[in-house]
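Fill in residues.
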């Protein structure tokens, strides 16, 4: 199965979107070769801004460009976007509902030998605390491309989480991938597994060894679980156990909410078991 890093799909799709939207600008904090925004810089140099190693300044400038009518995709590593620049994103982008897409790459521990200072486990949890922030965590290259296109079309702040390591394809080009929609990627008869991001391919790999059921929530919007309560209830009605696969401790903040809502909405006494699946650390290239 062909593997593609979601950051690679991000870079390629940006170039395509640059041809479609002449008001799309891209910003980077001196990491364009790693975040893959360098491809946009080559194609549309007049609309690319390297802001240097100054993430707070970059997102403040992104907010200014957005309120001036631009669609802004501003990239750096997830650690620096959600950590160093959090206050700027919260107040200048979230509070003003600026049309900025925070395109964070190298999330989680897949940064590898770059070390703990460049790894982030709390980024999605932090972004979900900002009212009106849409949070997207694609599972593969195909969903990364589709969801980026939809994010650009969606007015308002969006946090897109991309990984460094290449992951197997989960979807094909005909898949119905939409913001806020969960997708069944494998059916089975024993267990429900709910996963997002790179954990989807991990869950599918486990399914090859044991018959399980797997669903992906590529997107949780405004702190909601995927907007398919009837479908989720139908899946749970057919299974005895529900697992939520997490790649980091911080994901528990999302899955705890999901577990609580499932228990409340569907009156499940012991509905959900959560577990951490160890993410792969790729060798530095």
């Amino acid at each position: 199965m062909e593997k593609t890093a979601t950051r690679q799909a991000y870079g390629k799709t940006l170039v395509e979107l640059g041809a479609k939207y002449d008001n799309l600008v891209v910003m980077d904090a001196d990491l364009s070769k790693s975040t893959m925004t360098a491809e946009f810089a080559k194609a549309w140099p007049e609309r690319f801004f390297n802001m240097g190693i100054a993430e707070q300044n970059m997102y403040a400038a992104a907010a200014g460009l957005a309120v001036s009518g631009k669609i802004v995709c501003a990239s750096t590593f997830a650690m620096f976007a959600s950590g160093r620049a959090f206050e700027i994103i919260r107040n200048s982008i979230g509070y003003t509902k600026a049309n900025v897409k925070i395109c964070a790459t190298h999330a989680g521990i897949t940064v590898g030998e770059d070390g703990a200072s460049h790894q982030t486990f709390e980024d999605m949890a932090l972004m979900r605390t900002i009212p009106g922030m849409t949070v997207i965590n694609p599972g593969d290259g195909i969903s990364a491309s589709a969801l980026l296109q939809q994010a650009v079309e969606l007015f308002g702040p969006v946090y897109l989480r991309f990984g460094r390591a290449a992951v197997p394809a989960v979807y094909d080009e005909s898949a119905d991938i939409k913001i806020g929609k969960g997708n069944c990627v494998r059916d089975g008869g024993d267990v429900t597994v709910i996963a997002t991001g790179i954990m989807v391919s991990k869950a599918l790999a486990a399914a090859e060894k044991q018959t399980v059921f797997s669903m992906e929530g590529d997107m949780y919007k405004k702190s909601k679980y995927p907007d398919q309560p009837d479908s989720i209830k139908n899946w749970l009605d057919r299974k005895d156990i529900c697992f939520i696969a997490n790649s980091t401790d911080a994901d528990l903040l999302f899955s705890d909410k999901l577990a609580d809502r499932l228990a409340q909405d569907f009156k499940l006494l012991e509905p959900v078991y959560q577990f951490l699946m160890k993410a792969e650390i790729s060798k530095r290239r």
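The longest strand covers residues 71-77.
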